[in-house]
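User: Continuing from earlier, I have the next pair ready.

Assistant: Great, send them over.

User: Here they are, in order.

Assistant: Folding the first of the pair now:
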Amino acid sequence: MNDHEALKKPSGVLHFKLPSPGRIFVSFLFLFAIALALFPVLYILSMSLMSAEDYFHSKLIPSRFFFTNYTKAWKLAQMDLFYKNSIIVCTASVFFTLCVSSLAGYAFARFRFPGGSFIYYVLLLSMMIPPQILLIPLFINLRTLELLNTYWALIGPYTALGFAFGMFILKGFFELIPSSIEESAIMEGARKFRIFRSIMLPLARPAMATVTIFLFLNNWNEFMLALTFITDVKFKTLPVGIYSLLSFEYYEDYTTLAAALAMFTVPVMVVFFIFQKQFIKSLVAGAIKG
């Protein structure tokens, strides 16, 4: 570089490159989508702390925080009982679904047997069956087995309905794991089930976290089966309990309903934050496979 070029190039000056109009537009779209998704949640939280006067004056932010809406909703909807029932049903059904679907996913991913592909695709077809079609047969079977108004009236159907989805996700993830890992374990004298329990399941934690989040969210929000199979208040789940707030006496008490809905979403958010890292790892692995 000669002296003339050195004089033309300023030293110690930071140069900032402005983003292109296209990048600004895409960033604006992302921010708009995030705001659109968060607004209902934030409005429900805000509404749950409002007085009735603030709500009917269409205020977005309460002039005064009324935490009594939460205590009122907790007592009216018997949230402690319904929380317990929902946690028992969702935790048990997700656990049983993971146990069965992980075994099936591993078998279809690693073993070759006559009719294996046909059985796998038949099981996948069950994901296309609307639960409404199964409502009457399930009701008759549960009544015959005397399981109505018990936790098993929901745990059994939830496990069966989530099985195909869990098997599909876990089979795809097991296929990503190199077979050389299993071959090394076999050479060390490990049996198939020990390989599955001690090696494959720990490696498949991201996929299991994905299945856990989706199934827990689906089972936590499920309303139709819970309303049909459970009539005893001792076994009702949270969606049915919140629905009871829509009685004639409280159907216009929107702030109390908002407080109940806010409490309804807390466990789902907790489950997501617990498993979010594993969930992201599963999504990245699926993208790499694709």
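And the other member of the pair:
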Amino acid sequence: MGVRVGPTPSRSCLRERICDAAFSYVSHSSRIVACCLALSALIVACALPVSAQSQQTDAPPAAPEKQSANTIPPPTPGSVGGTVVDKDGAVVQNATVVLTSGTFSTQVRSGSDGSFIFTNVPSGPFELSFSSSGFATQRKSAVLQSGENYVVPQVQLVVATTVEVEVTQTREEIAEEQIHVEEKQRVLGVFPNFYVTYDPDAAPLNTRQKFQLGWKSTFDPVSFGMAGAIAGIEQAANAYSGFGQGAQGYGKRLGATFADFVSGTFIGSVILPSVFKQDPRYFYKGTGSRKSRFWYAMANAVICKGDNGRWQPNYSNVFGSLAAGGISNLYYPASSRNGVGLTFANAFIGVGASGVGAVIEEFFLHKATSHAPNLQPHQN
């Protein structure tokens, strides 16, 4: 079987075929590339809005300017004012008005027209207190807004039903009242018993009051009567014979007896207690055993209370007895005058006698003394 061989193509014809085939291949490839590029562009276009929307959602919301516009301003102080009147509508001057708001507190007085005002008052709840002499205190409360000028409704004060009056006495006034009580104390309602106090906390006497008590005790009519009775007894016994007898002798004895009483009282109970600042009175004890009360009374001959309320040596009584004995030598007869030794001896006898007198005062004279106050007795 033979193979048929066709005519051999020319070189020019073959070149044309190769060119056509290459063109066709390039044209087909270009279309494929174009389609791919178009598809990629479509995908990118669809993806862009989603990305933008996502970025927009994630962005911070509010602008700083809008936040600053919503900030709350700080509170501003305000004022509170009003008028104070009485029940008849008349203004009340100089009424004390106190404002309290938390820890803030201040006060003013109402003016001549009854008005009052508080400035720079912090906002918030507050309370007002109104008081004036003769009126009952009133209180009102309210709330002050920021920057507000609050006007309190007219405040009407009513007359107080009870008025409390505080009376404070000075120490001198208290002592004066106590002296008036002591000046009424008389044994059996007759004999003066002024130099004893039944008040354990009696106020100390000043110099004027010591002189007052000494004067009342010395020049009491009963004191004159007692001096006269003693002079009569001495006249009958012819004591101090240098004075003689008869009316002249009696007068001398009366004068000497009264002079002893005056010098003893004023020196021992007025002058020296004023100098040494001591109390010349006997402070009644009234409690404890009889023994303790006895020695308490005897000790008062040599100790006494000072004006400072403390116990101290009784210089007034000791030196007073000595001075009175020395002075008596000036008006007693020469034959009856005492020497220095006898003067000291008599002075100490006088001190002992004052102790005995205190014992009598402690145990016997309290119940026999009129107008003796029923006070709690001394515990010392």
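Worth noting for the second one:
Confidence is low (pLDDT under 50) at residues 1-15, 25-30, 44-59, 376-380. Residues 171-370 form one domain.
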